[in-house]
Amino acid sequence: MSGTILDFSRKMSALLLLDLSANSFSGPVPQLPTEVTTLDLSRNKLSRNISFTYDNFDSLGYLDLSDNLFAKELPHCWKLSSLVRLNLANNNFSGEIPSSIGLSKDMQMLQLRNNHFIGELPQSLEKCKYLRFIDVGENNLSGEIPAWIGNTLAYISVVILRSNRFSGSIPSSICQLTRIQILDISQNKISGTLPKCINNLTTLTEEESPK
C-alpha cells in the first residue's frame, strides 16, 4: 500500500493497535487517538511530523518507526511516559537524544541504531531501571561510556555502542552487569586497559548483535 495515512483520531477513536509496517506509505505520521497502545509504522517511506510525541499518549507502550526517512531532531519535550519499547533505528534523525526520553521509566528496549545522533547518552536514561536492551550503534555519539550503565541498569542484557565516537576507558562498573549477554563497544575511540573484573561477566556470548 502507498500514499499518505489517513487521520485515525476521529473515526477510529477506540483504536488500540495500529500496524501498517512494511508498506510504501509516505508523508507524516497520522493523527492518532490518544488511547492507542501499539503503533508500528516501520519499513515505510514516512518522513515528516512526529509531533504526536508532544501529546499525552498515556497508554502508548510500543512504538516502532524504524526504517523510514525521518530526519531532523527529536522533540525535546518527549511526553511518551508509558513506552516500554521504542525503535527509531535506520532513519536520519540528528541532534542530541532528548533527556526527556528518561521520563519513560518503564522502558525495556531502546533502539536508535543508524541515525545521526550526536552528544552524550542522556543521563536521564539511568532512571529507566528496567532497560534490558539498548542499541545506539552507528551514530555520532561521543563522551565516555557512562558509569551509570553498570551502576543502575541491573536488568540490562544487551548493550550496543559500536561505531560511535565514545572515548576514554571502560568503566569498572560494567562488571556489575551480571545479566549481560552482548556488549559491543567496537569501532570507537576507547583507550586504556580492560578492567580485570571483566572476566566475571560469564553470561557474555559470542553471538552477533541483532540487526
Give me some keywords for this one.
eight-stranded parallel sheet, 2% helix, 27% strand, Leucine-rich repeat, LRR (right-handed beta-alpha superhelix), mainly beta, 211 residues, single chain, elongated, six-stranded parallel sheet
Fold topology:
Elements: E1 2-3, E2 17-19, E3 24-28, E4 38-40, E5 45-48, E6 62-64, E7 71-73, E8 85-87, E9 92-96, E10 109-111, E11 116-119, E12 133-135, E13 140-144, H1 148-152, E14 158-160, E15 165-168, E16 182-184, E17 189-190
Parallel strand pairs: 1-3, 2-4, 3-5, 4-6, 6-8, 7-9, 8-10, 9-11, 10-12, 11-13, 12-14, 13-15, 14-16, 15-17
Folded structure, characterized:
This protein has 211 residues and is mainly beta. The protein is 2% helix and 27% strand. It contains one helix and 17 strands. The strands form three sheets. Strands 2-4-6-8-10-12-14-16 form an eight-stranded parallel β-sheet, with no helix packed on it. Strands 7-9-11-13-15-17 form a six-stranded parallel β-sheet, with no helix packed on it. The chain has a three-stranded parallel β-sheet with strand order 1-3-5, with no helix packed on it. It is elongated. The model has no long low-confidence stretch (mean pLDDT 90).
Report the principal-axis shape: elongated
**Count of domains:** 1
The helical percent reads under 10%
Q: Helix-strand pattern, N to C?
A: EEEEEEEEEEEEEHEEEE
Number of helices: 1
Major sheet description: 8 strands, parallel
Instruction: From the 3D structure, determine the CATH topology.
Output: Leucine-rich repeat, LRR (right-handed beta-alpha superhelix)
